[in-house]
Amino acid sequence: MNDMDRMLIEHECRKLMLNYCQHVDHLAPDAFANLFTEDAFYNPAAHPEMNGRAEILEWIKAYPKNRRARHCSVNQIVEVIDADNATGTSYAMVFRQENPVEGTPSPNVAPRAVVEYRDKFRRTTEGWRIAERQYQYDFLQAE
Fold this sequence. Notes:
- The chain is α+β, with helices and mostly antiparallel strands.
- The chain has one domain: Roll (Nuclear Transport Factor 2, Chain: A), CATH 3.10.450.
- 26% of the residues lie in helices and 46% in strands.
- It has a 6-stranded mixed sheet, covered by helices on one side.
- It is globular and about 50 Å long.
- 22% of the residues are buried.
């Protein structure tokens, strides 16, 4: 594999990491679920694990609508395994406001959590997708 092919894979996988945050924050269920392979394994901290895009779609459709959230993704590292597989890790600082007032900035300025994502990516006929995402809370603010 040449350097350009490796860089393109890294770019596509990092884009999945960033779009994950955008789609969960802006409650775009179809776009969110489409980030994953049809047979994806998703194990979010403090939630039951999910198998497959259909389960992930149902979970994100039920995501609370009465909150404003922002996931700030950082330290994205992608390791290319071969032309069809890669792994990655990243952190996200998660800010959240319950029952926000539209048009008013949130008074909560400290992150609610810092999480570490561990990903497996796979090239599919639809392009690169998340085949597995697991994460854990590294820091969690008391509610």
